[in-house]
Amino acid sequence: MTGRQRAEGEGQVVAVRADRPPSPTGSGASRGIVAAFLVSAAGAVGFAAAYGLGGGTRWEGVGLAVAFAGLAVGLALWGRHLAPGGGYVEEHEGFAPAPDEQALTAAALTAPDSPVRRRGLLAALGLALTALGAAALFPLRSLLPRPGARPVRALGETPWGPGVRLVDDNGRPLRPRDVPADTLVAVFPEGDAGAGDAPAFAVRLEPARFSRPPAGGHLDGLAAWSLLCTHAGCPVRLYLKGTGRILCPCHQSSFDLLAGARPVAGPAARALPGLPIEVGPDGFLRATGDFTAPPGAGFWDTP
Ligand code: FES
Question: Which portions of the sequence form the region Disordered (predicted)?
Fold first, then answer.
């Protein structure tokens, strides 16, 4: 629709002004629009691939940004180059469309050069929106159990169990000689080092100094306990050399490892749970069971 057109119906006046004619079909603008929508689709596919392959939030964000940017550019070019330009003025007394207005609208939508009749553009737009919609379904997979994930553990159970080897911060299995005398070594269950309730520590003490044996037993003075404070769950990594005591930095609870890791100062009320250990046939330290008590904060024990 070009130039200025005016139509009058029953009690209604419709005036449409289109100062700029749309570009002809097949112009460079059309190709640019299709390209933008294809880029949008590629971005959506990239997002889905990054999510599916575990590429990280950075690449997922890049994919989404490309998808929406392509969509925005395509729609902007479409409106800028193919839609009729200029302003529109519509005056009417009622809301019911007049027959003349309906005729004008129908003519605009069915004209051969109507932007909404360009199949290539509509197909590209449909592809971009379909790809975006499909990509949006991928995060739903996060609601499903991960393949190979272990079933939910009961409260009080940790990844420690018979045969689980002790590894250090770098995932390296530990031998007894890797735990020096009177030095704290943080240990984790092999294969599940990230479990929040599993951190533990090992210390080698003089066996004759134990006034109460460690709950998990010891290997010639080498014993292990939970690293989580029994007050509120902070890591208790402040070992006082020579004293056999370990401090929690959060609220200054102190545990006496020579006396069963019982609390001797601060708000903690429970002893640190012990971790029973042994030396496996391969010479590495391994657990013989879970902690001797639930690790970490013991709010549920409070009467
Ligand atoms: S968390 Fe350790 S004393 Fe409070």
Answer: 1-28
Q: To test ligand 1's pocket by mutation, which of 228, 230, 234, 299 has the most ligand atoms within 8 angstroms of CB?
A: 234
pLDDT digits 0-9 by tens, 241-270: 899 999 999 999 999 999 999 999 999 999
> Superfamily assignment of 156-287 in CATH?
Rieske [2Fe-2S] iron-sulphur domain (2.102.10.10)
pTM confidence score: 0.53
Nearest CA to ligand 1 atom 1: 232
Q: Where are the domains of the chain?
A: 29-82, 156-287
- Quote the distance between the C-alpha of residue 164 and its chain's center: 28
Ligand 1 centroid to residue 254 C-alpha, Å = 9
Q: Distance (Å, rounded) from C-alpha 140 to C-alpha 135?
A: 10
Residue 298: which of 275, 256, 269, 277 has the closest Cα?
269
Residues 38-48, buried b or exposed e (16+ Cβ, 10 A)? Answer: bbbbbbbbbbb
Question: Using one digit for the tens of pLDDT, what is the confidence trace for 42-71?
Answer: 999 999 999 988 878 889 999 999 999 999
User: What is the number of the ligand 1 atom nearest to the C-alpha of 234?
Assistant: 1
Q: Report the alpha-carbon distance of residue 206 to residue 174 in Å, rounded.
A: 20
**Ligand 1 midpoint to CA 261 (Å):** 14
Which residue has better confidence, 81 or 261? 261
Contact 86, 17 (CB under 8 A): yes
pLDDT tens per residue across span 14-23: 445 555 555 5
Q: Which of 172-176, 252-256, 282-286, 299-303 has the lowest mean pLDDT?
A: 299-303
